[in-house]
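Final report, closing paragraph on structural work. Over the funding period we assembled a curated collection of sequence-structure pairs, and we close with a single example.
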Amino acid sequence: MVNKVILIGNLGRDPEVRRLENGAVVAKFSVATNESFKDKNGEWQTLTEWHDVVVWRHLAERAERDLSKGKQVYVEGKLTHRKYQDKDGNDRYITEVVANNLRLLERREGTGGFSQNLPTEEPADTTSKSTTTTPVSESTVDDADDLPF
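Its predicted structure, as stored:
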């Protein structure tokens, strides 16, 4: 059986980070994905979906440091569902992506493509327009070759 979610979207807010009594760190943030389509009148429409994402431990610390509202990210993880009771005793349900891999994406200027290079030292020539990404992952294996772009 497989439970795997891959999202590429923009952060809707800065990560909300909490440090628990046992020392664990958890971060929550939302990611917006867009889908464009033509309606029955031939007009382009954009449908935006919002996804709640949760990350734990060192991945949460990296998210706190590197992610902010509006930045584009690659998120990989699993879909989870939780039930809880609000302060009035009503049952509430939440669907979240528990991420085990994040990658900050930056658009390359003038190409519409993405850069996914690992950070390197700044080149001596500062006129270069190349960009880098900051990998954020719980896995110890380099998954860059498995990315769908």
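Confidence is low (pLDDT under 50) at residues 113-149. Residues 5-139 form a domain with the OB fold (Dihydrolipoamide Acetyltransferase, E2P) fold (CATH 2.40.50.140). We thank the funder for supporting this effort.
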